Amino acid sequence: MPKRFSVIAPIIIATAVLAGCPKQQGPAPVGVDLPREQRLDPKTETEVARLLEDLRGTDYLARVKAEDELKKLMAAADPDVRAKMARYVIPVLSEPQWGVRAIGLKLLMAHGGNCPEAVAELVQVLGDMNINAPMRDAVARTLARWTGDSLGYNAFDVEPRVKAAAARWKKWLEETGGRIPVKR
Fold it and tell me: Do both 99 and 127 map to the same domain?
């Protein structure tokens, strides 16, 4: 009997200890870490949260539909609301699935111009050699279109030159705070 207890006791103790541990959860609900003035209205926030959840899911058709709906929702919004939506999309850039991150980048390139945080994320992409050159090039072209300057960035150049140009963009980001001048 004592031998049997010695085998079961560690299992019981481990179960009791683990029962008190918080359960692993998915990503935090969107927007909860944003200041009140940067959050969307509750109805829009719920819709964006649903679409982002579908975007992160495994159902391919749901992901395609979510991407299309997010594009339409962001395109139809006024610039201030669009900037708020971009803040909700930013966490998508840290998703493990490259396809989901690419969608997030495309959404930010299309609609993140008045969101300094989105601009900052795009600038970070320029120096990330783990992201393929065509995607970095698309980001660079977007930033050049918004700012009117390329800062000599060429995603297809050799790595030291890419890194040097990315550093110039980071300096620009520090100087401007990621605020794109409004073109009239």
Answer: no
